[in-house]
Every structure is written in structure tokens, then in C-alpha cells.
Amino acid sequence: EVHLVPQTLSWQSALGLISAATAWMHWVRQVPGKGLEWLLMYYSSSNEYFAPGIEDRVTVTKDLSNNIFDLTIKSPRVDDTAIYYCARDSQ
């Protein structure tokens, strides 16, 4: 049996009335049946923090003109199977 794995996985989070320009954003994920796993916190390319082992596999951007926060995982693995959430920092 052959399973094709995509080369990248991508998500977009529309921020609505929250300004992407001034928001610290987080991505977290939840593997079914397990707790939340924090992946990263992002403000800009010079202000970003990653969970150990994920930094070289992800790309994060903010599209300020469309108020969107993007996450891309390169070379996804089976253990990347999860529900992904975007959240704004409360500060």
C-alpha cells in the first residue's frame, strides 16, 4: 500500500478586526486524544520563538494587507497529523 505525503502543509488564519501589524500570534496543535502542543510565537521575522525541533521545518508569515497569519510545514511527517489552532497573545 502506497501513501502519498504532500511536500508542504499550509494554514491561514484570518485575524478579522485584530490588526496583524501589532499582534503577537501563536500556533498550537492537538493530536487527537492528547493535549495542546505549543509550536511557535510570532510577531515578525526578527521576533519569533519556536518549540524545539520545529524551527527548521516551518515558515511563518503575516500578510498585513489582508490581515492574515500563515503557517507552512515543510516535509510533513505522520506525527504532524493534528488539529492546528492560531491564537493571538493577550498582551
TrEMBL record:
Keywords per UniProt: Adaptive immunity, Immunity, Immunoglobulin
GO biological process: adaptive immune response
SMART domains: IGv
Gene3D superfamilies the record matches: Immunoglobulins
GO cellular component annotations of the record: extracellular region; immunoglobulin complex
InterPro entries: Ig-like_dom_sf, Ig-like_fold, Ig_V-set, IgHV
The Immunoglobulin V-set domain, residue ranges: 6-88
Pfam families cross-referenced by the UniProt entry: V-set (PF07686)
Transmembrane segment boundaries: none
The keyword ATP-binding appears for this protein: no
Protein name as annotated: Immunoglobulin V-set domain-containing protein
Entry annotated with the keyword Glycoprotein: no
